[in-house]
Amino acid sequence: MATWTWTFEDADGQPVLPEGQGGPGAPAEGFSAQADAETWVGEHWRALVAAGAEGAVLREDERRVYGPMPLRPAE
User: Fold this and answer.
1) Tens digit of pLDDT for each residue in 21-52?
2) pLDDT class for 19, splitting at 50, 70, 90?
3) Where along the chain do its domains lie?
4) In 5, 14, 23, 49, which residue has its Cα 20 to 30 A from 39's Cα atom?
5) Distance between CA atoms of 40 and 38, rounded to whole angstroms?
6) 3-class SS at 3?
7) Measured between alpha carbons, how far is 49 from 46 in angstroms, rounded to an integer?
8) What is the pTM of this model?
9) How far from 22 is each of 47, 69, 71, 75, CA to CA, in Å?
């Protein structure tokens, strides 16, 4: 079974949160489905931005699925 996880980057592309920590409130083991991971980031993006994240990268196991996706809304 695949594990879906997020990594977060600052404006310079540097990691924001420690390795293995998907963000405030994220399960330590990751998500079992892509939709669950995407729903979670949609609900928590404000806290992630407050923690210094500007972009989010979604991974399926070790494979980068997409990102970095901007976390701030378009102006």
Assistant:
1) 566 566 677 899 999 999 999 998 998 898 88
2) very low
3) 6-12+23-57+65-75
4) 14
5) 5
6) coil
7) 5
8) 0.85
9) 12, 15, 14, 26
Contact 58, 9 (CB under 8 A): no
In this structure, the strands spanning 4-9 and 63-70 are unpaired
3-state secondary structure 9-74: ECCCCCECCCCCCCCCCCCCCCECCHHHHHHHHHHHHHHHHHCCCCEEEEEECCEEEEEEEECCCC
Tell me the C-alpha distance between 71 and 56, whole Å: 7
Q: Are 51 and 23 in contact (CB under 8 A)?
A: yes
